[in-house]
Design a protein that fits this description.
The complex is a heterotrimer of chains A (417), B (101) and C (1006).
Chain A: H1 6-14, E1 32-38, H2 42-55, E2 60-63, E3 79-80, H3 87-101, H4 103-107, E4 118-122, H5 125-141, E5 146-149, H6 150-156, E6 172-176, E7 180-181, H7 184-197, E8 201-203, E9 208-213, E10 219-224, E11 227-236, H8 242-248, E12 256-265, E13 275-278, E14 283-287, E15 293-299, H9 311-324, E16 332-343, E17 350-353, E18 359-363, H10 373-386, H11 400-403, H12 409-413
Parallel strand pairs in A: 1-2, 1-11, 2-8, 4-13, 11-18
Antiparallel strand pairs in A: 3-7, 4-6, 5-6, 9-10, 10-11, 12-15, 12-16, 13-14, 14-15, 17-18
Chain B: E1 3-6, E2 11-14, E3 19-23, H1 37-45, E4 53-59, E5 67-73, E6 79-84
Antiparallel strand pairs in B: 1-2, 3-4, 4-5, 5-6
Chain C: E1 14-23, E2 26-32, H1 36-42, E3 49-50, E4 57-58, E5 71-75, H2 78-82, E6 87-91, E7 102-105, H3 119-122, H4 131-134, H5 142-154, E8 169-181, H6 185-196, E9 201-204, E10 221-222, E11 225-226, H7 227-239, E12 244-247, E13 250-256, E14 260-266, E15 281-293, E16 297-299, E17 312-314, H8 315-323, E18 333-337, H9 341-351, E19 356-361, H10 368-376, E20 381-383, E21 385-391, E22 398-405, E23 408-416, E24 419-423, E25 426-428, H11 431-435, E26 440-443, E27 448-451, E28 458-460, H12 470-489, E29 500-501, E30 526-528, E31 533-534, H13 535-543, H14 549-556, H15 569-580, H16 584-587, E32 599-600, H17 601-605, H18 622-627, E33 631-635, E34 638-643, H19 651-664, E35 667-670, E36 675-680, H20 684-691, E37 704-710, E38 716-726, E39 729-734, H21 739-753, E40 760-763, E41 769-774, H22 778-782, E42 800-806, E43 810-816, E44 824-829, H23 831-847, E45 851-852, H24 855-864, H25 899-902, H26 905-908, E46 913-920, E47 932-933, E48 947-955, E49 960-968, E50 977-982, E51 985-992
Parallel strand pairs in C: 1-7, 8-9, 8-15, 9-12, 15-28, 17-24, 18-19, 18-24, 19-20, 35-45
Antiparallel strand pairs in C: 1-2, 3-4, 5-6, 5-7, 10-11, 10-29, 13-14, 14-15, 16-25, 21-22, 22-23, 26-27, 30-31, 33-34, 35-41, 36-39, 36-40, 37-38, 38-39, 41-44, 42-43, 43-44, 46-49, 46-51, 47-48, 48-49, 50-51
The chains are: A alpha/beta (417), B mainly beta (101), C alpha+beta (1006).
C-alpha cells in the first residue's frame, strides 16, 4: 500500500505523477459477504473501516447507489463539535471528537480537521440559561465548552456585530475551542481508501432494491441493481433514504426526510477565524481553507427527496448572516445546494439493532451527522461485529420510542445541531 | 417556494402562507388506553416517509386557517391533488384536481 | 498610455465622453459605455489578475459573466475604497465603468507584476490535484499552527469588505404570464411575440444594453434594417407596452419549484452618482406562468499548453471587443479554432483595420467559402494546424504551431503575435433548464448536452438549445414566445416571421485536450483557469480511482471556481471520458445549481435588517415603560419590560426593590403579551377536557382554573389560567412564547381529530391588554376605577373572573388571580384603552407606595412560590408529576392529549428528575442557572449529574438566595445536602420543598 507522505509526493512528481495508483478499487460484487453496509457516505465507510481494522471483519461490501461520499457527507457545512447537553449525547459526540484528533494520521489521509473553535451565540435570556446549562453539564462530563461574554465573543471572532442596534443582540456565547471544521470529501475518501486497503469492497453505482430474509426472518442478503448479494449481516447507513431501505425489510422508522440547504460565497482572503452558530436567528458560518464563506441554512418544512429547497430558506439565513456580520452584505453567494436529512422526533440518532435479526441501522443524524462520522462508524462497527451495542451507542436504540426514554436535544437545547 | 392550492379557499398561494402538518391519515386512536406501548409508539412516531407519492397535511395558517390534505411527489415536489380533511385519499394515478397544476 | 488600441470608428461606446478610473493606483481613461475589461484592453492592458493556486498571471479571457480570470475588487470611489466598502471578485467583463471608480487586482502581493505567491507556480510539480490530502500531516500539531494558516493565506481571491455596507437593497414580488431570460435574438423574438399576444411579459437580461449577440453582429440585418436598429425598435415597442417589464442588468439566478424564479437586478453600481433613493440592487421573486430560456451559448476554450497566458482570449470575445467596444485586443492577432464562428472574429477585426496574422484551424475540411473570404481579407490560413504552446508569461509574444496528422502532431514553427483568439466551439447554456430539473440529452453530433423535455412550465429557445444561425434563432425564439404565451393565456398567438441575414450556421467543434508535440510532463494545459486545474490533473484524478465526474470535480476542483465550470466542464468531462475510455453521457455531468452567477448577500437579505429582521411586537404599555427607563428583553417576537431601574440602580437593586414593593404594598405589571384564545361553542368544555390535563366540565361560570397542557408524548407543552365566561365560552391564556403553538395545536385536534365538536377558536392576544396588579393593596389600587364589579373576597374570591367596566364604561374582563402569591387582579381591557387604564391604575399604585415591575421580578415572585415557568423549569422532557403537578390531572377523565404517553415505561420510571427547591448552605451564594447538581462535592469525571438548577434569584422575601432545580428523585431528597460544582469549587446546597414564601397561601385570599 502506498503510504502518503511529502516524500512520496515529491518522488512521484519526478515521474510526473504517473505512478499513483487508485485510492480504492472498482470491484465486482462477490456472491456473499459477512457484512454488507448500505450507503457509502462517511458513516458507512467509517463503519466498514472499523469493522476491518478493529474487528478483523474484512469480507465486507459497502453498496452505494451513486458515488461514494455523494450524499450528505459531501453536502454539509463540515462543523465538528461535541458540546451537547445530555450525557448520552456528550458521550457519543465526544467519542467522535476523540477520534477526530488523530484521524488524519490514522487514515494517512489529511482530513484537515481544523480546531478553530465553534462559538454558539446567545441572543435571549433563555438562550443564556440554556447555554450555561450546557457549559456546566459539559464541564462535569469532561467535554470542553466555555461561556463567553459578548465582548469576549467579539474578541474571538472580530467580524461579529455585538452592537445593540440589531433585532436580537448578541448577549454571549458558548465556545468549544477544539470544535472546528474538517474537509468532508477527505473524510469519505480517507475512510474509503483505508477500508479498501483492508479488503472491503466498495461497490458504487449499485442500488439496493430489496432486502431478502430467511424463513426465520433473519437477513439473507440484498437485491441490487447488480443482482442478489448474500450477507450474514446488513447495516443500513442510508441517511435521508433510510426509511426507503428499511421499508424493504418491513421496518417502519420514526423518521422524516427534509431538504437542508447550504451555500458558499465566492472565495476571499482569510476574514473569518472560527465557526459561529446561532440557532435563534438561524445562521451557521465558517470560512473554508479555500476562502469561501460556508453557510448553513435551516430545513424546509416538508418531506422531500429532491435535494433542493426554497429560496425563502436561503434568504432567511443570509438575513441573519448580514445582521451578525454586516460587512458581508457585499459578499456574494456563489453556490447553493441541498441535502436530504433524516430527522427523528427527539433529534438524536438511532444506532443499533432492529427487529430483524442481522439487520442493523444507523440513521437519524438530522442536520448534524458529519461531526459524528468517526464515532458513529466506530460504535456501529462494534454493534454489528458483536451483535450488541457499544456502551456509547447503547442508549440510542429504536426501542426508546416505545419506552419514552428519548434523548431530546432539540427540546432541551433549543439548538439545532 | 412551493405554490399550494388551498381546497378550502379555492386559491393558489405561496408556501409561506402554509404550515406543514406531516403525514396524513394517521388517526388518533379512539381508545389510546387500549393500545400497548408498541402500538402507541407506532401512532406517535412511526412514519412512512415515502420517496414518491405522499399524503400529507397542510394548514393554511395565514389564510383560512384550515387543515387539508395533499398528495405530493416527494421526489419532484409536484402536487398531485389536494383534498379536504376527512375526505378519502384520492387515487394518485387518476388524480388531476386543481392541486395537480 | 494612450488609447492606442481603440479602433478609429465603430462600437457602441460614447467616444465623446471620457471616463477616468483607477486601476491598481493608476488613473486610466475609458469611454462611457466601456466595461472595465474593454477599457483596460483599450489601454493595452491584458494582465488583470493572478490565478487561485499557482498565482499565474492572467488576462481577460471572455466578454461576459463567465469570465474566470479577470476578477477585480471594485469600489465606487476612493472614499468607499478607503472605508472598506469595496466588492471583491467582480468580473471586469461585467463591470460598467464610471467616473472615479477604484479597481484593484487580486491575489497578488506585493503587486500584480511581481507576486511572491507565484513561487507556487515553480512548485507546481508538487502541487497537483489532491496534493494536500497526501501531506501536511506531520507533525500533527503543524496543521493548525503552520500548514493551514499558510494555505489559507495563499488561497482566496479578493479581500472581503471590512466595513458595514452602507447601501440599501430592495425586494419585489411579481407575477407574469411569460418570463423571458435573455435579450439576444431568441429572447427578443420570444418577448416580442408573447407581448403582441397580450401576455404580461418580464424580459430580464444580464447586461446594461439589450441585444446580446446582435450588438456585435455588425453585418446582420433583420427585417431590412441593421440588427442593432431592430433591437432598438423591439425594445421601444416592449417599453411602450404597460404589460411588459424590462429588467436590464438583471440575472435570472435561480429556478425554483413551480416556476418560482429568483432575479437579481443591479440598479446603481454602474452609476457614478446614483439617486440616493435607489437601492443598490433589487431582488425579484417572480411566479411566472411560463418561462422562456434564451440564455445563449458559451464559447469553449481550447485546452493546449500555456493556454492561460494573458493575451489568449476567446474568439467571440475578441469580436465583441472590436465590434461593440471599438477595441482591438492586440496588434498582431492570431486565431486558433476548430469552429467556423471564430473566422467571423478574424474577418470583423480585419475589417476594422486590425492585424490578423493568421487563422489556424485544427480541421482540414474547412468550408471553402471561409477560406475564400480569408483570402479576400488577405489573412493567412493554416488548416490541420493547432497551437501547441505560447511564448511570453505576462503577455504572449507568439505561439508555437503544430501540424496535426492523425493522432500525432509535429512542430510547424511559430508565429509572432500578442493576442491569440481561440475557439473550441460552443457550449449551449443549459444551466437554468437543468436548475428547473429538466433532463439533458447528449448529442454526439454536436458535442453538446441539449435540453431534454422540460419538467416545469418552461422551454428553451435559440442557441441554448443548440440552434444556430440568426434566422433560425429568431424563428425559434418566436416559436417559444408564442408557445409560452398560448400556454399561459390560452390565447391563440400569431408567430411572426422575421427575415434575417447575419451569422450563418457555424460548424465544427472540439472537446477536451488538444494534441501537441510537447513533453507532457513539463507543460500544462489549463481546463479550469481560475482554479488552475490542468488536463493532467483530471487524468491524475482518474488514475487515482476518481471515476465519477463528481469525484473528479471535487478532487481537482475543476468547475468549482466562480464561473461554476461554465468554460471548463465540457472539456474536463471529455478529458475524463477519454481517460476512462467511457462515453461522455456515462461519465455524467455535474449538477447545475443556483445561483446562475453569484448573487450579493445584501440582495438576498433585502430589507431584512435591524427592526425589520423580525417583526417586533410591542404592547399598548410599551411606550410608557420605555419612557420610565425600563430595560427590555426579547421574548419570542415581543419586547417585554424586564425591570424598571431608578437612577443609580442596577438590575439587582431594581429587582429587589420591585419584589419587596409588591409583597409589601402593590405592583403593576404589563401582562399583555400572554397568549389569549377565546374558546366558544356548546362543546367548549368537552374540548378543553381533552386538550388539558385538568377537568373543566364542572368549572363554574365566573371561575378560573390553572390549566396544564401536554403534547401527545406526555410532556408539558404549555400552561395558563383559563376562565369560564359563560356555559359555552372560555377565556384561555397561554405563555407568551407559546401562543401560536398552542392555537395551532388546538386547531389541529379540533379540525382533524374531533371535527364533530362544535367549538370555535379565536386568538384574542391582540384584543386584550392585560394589566396585572398584585400585592396586599391591589384591591385598593383598582377599586376606585371599577364601575360595576363587587371586589369583595366574598363576591369575587381568588380564581374568579367577572365581566364589567372600568373608568366609566371601558369594558373589561377582570381576573382575580395571582402569579406572585399575593392577592391580585389582572385587568383585561381593549388595547386602545389600555394606556388610559394603566395610567389611572399606576397613579393609584404610586399613591399607595407601589411601583411598576418587570418580567424579572415576576420571575422571582413566582419562584418564591414554586410556580413553574414552562421552558425554564421544563424543557420538553418533563411530565406533570416531575414538577409535582399530579394534582392538575383529572383523575376521572378517560383520555386527554398526552395521557396515554404518561403510561409509557420511562415516564413512570423511578428516579426521574423532580422539581425541588435548593438553599445554599451558606445562605449567601447565588447559584447560577444551568449549574449542575451532584451528590459529591468533587465528583469523579463523567459522573452523571443528579440534575440542574432551573431558576435562581436573590429573594427579598426570604432574605436569601433561593433556587429551583430538577433533581433525580428530588422529592425524596428533601433535607439532603447536595453540591453544585463550579469551576472554583462546589457550593453545598440543601434540598427543600419548592416553596419559600407563605406556604399556607393565606395571602392569596386577603
Amino acid at each position: 500500500m502506498t503510504r502518503f507522505s511529502f516524500w512520496d509526493l515529491a518522488l512521484k512528481a519526478l515521474n510526473a505523477h504517473q505512478d499513483w495508483g487508485h485510492q480504492w478499487r472498482k470491484p465486482d460484487p462477490k456472491p456473499e459477504y459477512d457484512v454488507i453496509i448500505i450507503g457509502a457516505g462517511g458513516h458507512g465507510l467509517a463503519t466498514a473501516y472499523y469493522l476491518a481494522c478493529e474487528h478483523g471483519i474484512t469480507n465486507v461490501a459497502v453498496l452505494e447507489k451513486g458515488w461514494l461520499g455523494g450524499g450528505n457527507t459531501g453536502r454539509n457545512t463540515t462543523i465538528v463539535r461535541s458540546n451537547y447537553l445530555w450525557e448520552e449525547s456528550e458521550a457519543l459526540y465526544d467519542h467522535a471528537m476523540d477520534l477526530w484528533q488523530d484521524l488524519s494520521q490514522e487514515l494517512n489521509y489529511n482530513v484537515m480537521y481544523s480546531a478553530r473553535g465553534v462559538m454558539m451565540l446567545a441572543h435571549t435570556v433563555h438562550d443564556i440559561q440554556v447555554f450555561k446549562r450546557h457549559v456546566h453539564a459539559n464541564r462535569l462530563a469532561g467535554v470542553q465548552n466555555e461561556w463567553l461574554s459578548a465582548e469576549e465573543a467579539k474578541e474571538f471572532c472580530p467580524p461579529l456585530n455585538i452592537g445593540r442596534n440589531i433585532r436580537y443582540p448578541v448577549l454571549g456565547a458558548a465556545l468549544q475551542r477544539k470544535g472546528g471544521v474538517a474537509r468532508h470529501d477527505a473524510v469519505a475518501w480517507g475512510y474509503a481508501r483505508g477500508a479498501d486497503r483492508r479488503g472491503v469492497d466498495i461497490i458504487q453505482n449499485c442500488a439496493v432494491t430489496g432486502i431478502r430474509r430467511h424463513a426465520d426472518g433473519s437477513i439473507a442478503g440484498v437485491e441490487t441493481s447488480r443482482g442478489f448479494i448474500g450477507a450474514k449481516k446488513v447495516g443500513v447507513v442510508a441517511a435521508g433514504h433510510t426509511s426507503v431501505v428499511m421499508d424493504m425489510a418491513g421496518v417502519r422508522m420514526p423518521l422524516e426526510s427534509n431538504p437542508l440547504q447550504a451555500l458558499v460565497s465566492e472565495p476571499v482572503k482569510p476574514c473569518f477565524p472560527c465557526v459561529v452558530m446561532s440557532n435563534t436567528v438561524h445562521a451557521y458560518i465558517s470560512q473554508s481553507d479555500k476562502g469561501e464563506l460556508v453557510i448553513g441554512a435551516g430545513t424546509d418544512q416538508y418531506v422531500s427527496y429532491s435535494q433542493t429547497g426554497g429560496l425563502q430558506i436561503t434568504t432567511h439565513t443570509v438575513d441573519a448572516i448580514c445582521e451578525l456580520f454586516p460587512m458581508f452584505r457585499r459578499m456574494r453567494m456563489l453556490r447553493n445546494w441541498g441535502g436530504i436529512v433524516d430527522v427523528t422526533p427527539d433529534r438524536s440518532p438511532i444506532i443499533g439493532k432492529t427487529p430483524v435479526p442481522g439487520l442493523y441501522v444507523n440513521c437519524g443524524w438530522g442536520t448534524g451527522g458529519f461531526k459524528a462520522t468517526p464515532g458513529s462508524g466506530h460504535v456501529f462497527a462494534h454493534t454489528i461485529a458483536r451483535d450488541e451495542p457499544h456502551p456509547v451507542n447503547a442508549p440510542f436504540t429504536l426501542d426508546r420510542f416505545r419506552t419514552g426514554r428519548l434523548i431530546d436535544e432539540a427540546a432541551a437545547a433549543a439548538v439545532a445541531h | 417556494m412551493l405554490l399550494i392550492h388551498c381546497p378550502c379557499c379555492g386559491v393558489e398561494r405561496p408556501e409561506i402562507e402554509f404550515r406543514y402538518g406531516g403525514e396524513a391519515h394517521i388517526a388518533r386512536p379512539m381508545q389510546p388506553a387500549d393500545l400497548d406501548d408498541h402500538q402507541w409508539a407506532e401512532f406517535l412516531y412511526m412514519r412512512t416517509n415515502p420517496k414518491g407519492v405522499m399524503a400529507e397535511r397542510w394548514r393554511h395558517v395565514h389564510g383560512c386557517g384550515r387543515f387539508f390534505n395533499a398528495l405530493r411527489d416527494t421526489v419532484s415536489d409536484r402536487f398531485i391533488a389536494v383534498y379536504k380533511t376527512g375526505e378519502p385519499r384520492p387515487d394518485s394515478a387518476t388524480a388531476s384536481g386543481e392541486g395537480a397544476r | 498610455m494612450t488609447l492606442s488600441f481603440r479602433t478609429s470608428k465603430g462600437g457602441r461606446i460614447d467616444r465623446a465622453k471620457s471616463v477616468k478610473f483607477i486601476f491598481d493606483g493608476k488613473t486610466l481613461v475609458g469611454q462611457a459605455g466601456d466595461t472595465l475589461a474593454s477599457a483596460l484592453l483599450a489601454n493595452g492592458i491584458h494582465l488583470v489578475g493572478r490565478s487561485f493556486k499557482y498565482h499565474r498571471p492572467r488576462g481577460i479571457l471572455t466578454a461576459g459573466s463567465e469570465e474566470p480570470n479577470a476578477l477585480v475588487g471594485v469600489a465606487k470611489s476612493a472614499a468607499a475604497a478607503a472605508a472598506g466598502q469595496s466588492v471583491p471578485n467582480l468580473r471586469a467583463t461585467q463591470v460598467e465603468i464610471h467616473e472615479g471608480m477604484v479597481i484593484v487586482s487580486q491575489n497578488r502581493w506585493p503587486s500584480l507584476g511581481f507576486d511572491i505567491g507565484a513561487v507556487n507556480d515553480r512548485l507546481s510539480p508538487l502541487f497537483v490535484a489532491g496534493f494536500y490530502y497526501k501531506t501536511f500531516m506531520w507533525p500533527k500539531s503543524f496543521w493548525n499552527r503552520v500548514y493551514e494558516p499558510f494555505i489559507r493565506a495563499a488561497a482566496g481571491l479578493g479581500k472581503a469588505p471590512t466595513a458595514p455596507d452602507p447601501d440599501r437593497y430592495a425586494n419585489r414580488y411579481a407575477h407574469c404570464d411569460v418570463l423571458v431570460a435573455g435579450s439576444g435574438p431568441a429572447g427578443l423574438a420570444a418577448a416580442l411575440t408573447a407581448t403582441r399576444s397580450g401576455a404580461r411579459v418580464i424580459l430580464a437580461y444580464e447586461q446594461g444594453e439589450p441585444g446580446g449577440s446582435l450588438l456585435h453582429d455588425v453585418g446582420a440585418q433583420i427585417d431590412g434594417r441593421p440588427a442593432a436598429e431592430w433591437v432598438s425598435a423591439v425594445i421601444a415597442e416592449l417599453a411602450g407596452n404597460d404589460r411588459v417589464t424590462l429588467l436590464p442588468r438583471t440575472t435570472v439566478f435561480g429556478y425554483f419549484n413551480q416556476n418560482f424564479i429568483g432575479l437579481a437586478e443591479r440598479v446603481t453600481d454602474h452609476l457614478a452618482d446614483p439617486d440616493p433613493s435607489l437601492p443598490r440592487e433589487r431582488l425579484w421573486q417572480v411566479r411566472a406562468r411560463q418561462v422562456v430560456l434564451a440564455t445563449g451559448a458559451i464559447e469553449r476554450p481550447l485546452v493546449f499548453p500555456e493556454n492561460d497566458r494573458p493575451g489568449v482570449m476567446m474568439a467571440e470575445a475578441g469580436r465583441i471587443y472590436a465590434n461593440r467596444f471599438g477595441v482591438l485586443p492586440g496588434r498582431a492577432i492570431a486565431v486558433a479554432t476548430s469552429c467556423d464562428s471564430a473566422w467571423r472574429a478574424a474577418f470583423d477585426i480585419k475589417a476594422l483595420g486590425g492585424n490578423v496574422v493568421a487563422i489556424l484551424d485544427m480541421r482540414t475540411d474547412v468550408d471553402p467559402a471561409l477560406k475564400e473570404k480569408a483570402r479576400a481579407h488577405s489573412i493567412r490560413v493554416e488548416t490541420g494546424c493547432t497551437v501547441t504552446g505560447v511564448k511570453g508569461t505576462k503577455r504572449i509574444e507568439g505561439v508555437r504551431l503544430g501540424r496535426i496528422s492523425g493522432d500525432t502532431v509535429s512542430s510547424a514553427g511559430s508565429l509572432a503575435c500578442d493576442c491569440l483568439l481561440m475557439s473550441g466551439g460552443w457550449t449551449p447554456n443549459v444551466s437554468l433548464h437543468s436548475q428547473a430539473r429538466g433532463k439533458l440529452d447528449w448529442h454526439a453530433d454536436k458535442g453538446a448536452f441539449l435540453p431534454g423535455d422540460p419538467v416545469q412550465a418552461q422551454r428553451s429557445a435559440g442557441s441554448c438549445r443548440g440552434i444556430d444561425g440568426l434566422a433560425q434563432v429568431l424563428a425559434d425564439g418566436a416559436r417559444a414566445g408564442a408557445e409560452a404565451a398560448q400556454a399561459a393565456t390560452g390565447n391563440a398567438v400569431d408567430v411572426p416571421a422575421f427575415s434575417a441575414s447575419g451569422s450563418e450556421v457555424s460548424s465544427g467543434w472540439w472537446l477536451g485536450a488538444v494534441p501537441h508535440d510537447r513533453d507532457a510532463s513539463r507543460v500544462r494545459a489549463f481546463v479550469d483557469f481560475q482554479n488552475d486545474v490542468t488536463a493532467k490533473d483530471v487524468k491524475l484524478a482518474v488514475r487515482e480511482g476518481m471515476h465519477s465526474i463528481e469525484h473528479i470535480k471535487r478532487y481537482t476542483t475543476t468547475g468549482m471556481a466562480t464561473d461554476q465550470g461554465r468554460l471548463s466542464n465540457m472539456n474536463a468531462l471529455s478529458i475524463a471520458s477519454t481517460a476512462l475510455a467511457n462515453e461522455i453521457p456515462q461519465v455524467g455531468l455535474t449538477t447545475f445549481r443556483q445561483p446562475y452567477t453569484p448573487v450579493t448577500f445584501g440582495t438576498l437579505a433585502t430589507t431584512s435588517r435591524g427592526d425589520l429582521f423580525d417583526p417586533v411586537r410591542r404592547t399598548a404599555i410599551h411606550d410608557w415603560a420605555a419612557a420610565q427607563g425600563a430595560a427590555f428583553e426579547d421574548v419570542s417576537l415581543w419586547k417585554r419590560a424586564w425591570y424598571f431601574p431608578k437612577s443609580g440602580e442596577d438590575m439587582h437593586a431594581a429587582v429587589l426593590r420591585e419584589c419587596r414593593t409588591v409583597r409589601e404594598s402593590v405592583g403593576i405589571f404589563d401582562a399583555s403579551t400572554l397568549g389569549k384564545i377565546e374558546v366558544v361553542g356548546p362543546d367548549a368544555a368537552e374540548f378543553l377536557e381533552r386538550i388539558y390535563t385538568n377537568p373543566w366540565k364542572k368549572l363554574g361560570i365566573g371561575r378560573l382554573r390553572y390549566g396544564l397542557m401536554l403534547n401527545e408524548a406526555g410532556f408539558i407543552m404549555d400552561d395558563g389560567v383559563v376562565g369560564r365566561i359563560a356555559e359555552d365560552r372560555f377565556h384561555v391564556t397561554t405563555t407568551t412564547g407559546g401562543a401560536p403553538r398552542v392555537l395551532a395545536h388546538m386547531e389541529d385536534y379540533l379540525q382533524t381529530e374531533w371535527a364533530d365538536l362544535k367549538v370555535w377558536l379565536t386568538s384574542t392576544t391582540e384584543q386584550w391588554a392585560v394589566i396585572a396588579v398584585q400585592g396586599p393593596k391591589a384591591r385598593e389600587a383598582i377599586a376606585p376605577l371599577v364601575d360595576d364589579i363587587d371586589l369583595s373576597t366574598e363576591a369575587m374570591p381568588h380564581m374568579s373572573v367577572r365581566q364589567g367596566h372600568v373608568m366609566g364604561g371601558i369594558p373589561c374582563r377582570l381576573f382575580r388571580m395571582s402569579f406572585t402569591g399575593e392577592a391580585g387582579y389582572e385587568i383585561n381591557v381593549p388595547p386602545s384603552r389600555a394606556r388610559q387604564v394603566w395610567d389611572a391604575v399606576f397613579a393609584n399604585v404610586e399613591r399607595l407606595g407601589g411601583c411598576a415591575y418587570g418580567t424579572e421580578t415576576m420571575h422571582v415572585l413566582r419562584a418564591e412560590k414554586g410556580y413553574i415557568i414552562v421552558g425554564q423549569e421544563t424543557d420538553g422532557t418533563v411530565t406533570p408529576d416531575d414538577v409535582g403537578m399530579s394534582w392538575a390531572i383529572g383523575k376521572n377523565k378517560p383520555d386527554f392529549v398526552g395521557k396515554r404517553s404518561l403510561a409509557r415505561p420511562d415516564l413512570m420510571a423511578t428516579g426521574r428528575k423532580q422539581l425541588v427547591g435548593l438553599l445554599t448552605k451558606d445562605g449567601k451564594a447565588l447559584l447560577e442557572e444551568g449549574a449542575q447538581v451532584t451528590a459529591e462535592a468533587d465528583p469523579a469525571p463523567r459522573t452523571p449529574a443528579l440534575g440542574h438548577v432551573t431558576s435562581s434569584y436573590m429573594s427579598a422575601a426570604a432574605g436569601r438566595p433561593i433556587a429551583l432545580a430538577m433533581i433525580a428523585n428530588g422529592r425524596a431528597r428533601h433535607g439532603e445536602t447536595l453540591h453544585v460544582p463550579m469551576p472554583n469549587g462546589a457550593i453545598a446546597v440543601e434540598v427543600v420543598p419548592p416553596l419559600f414564601v407563605d406556604p399556607e397561601g393565606s395571602r392569596l385570599n386577603a
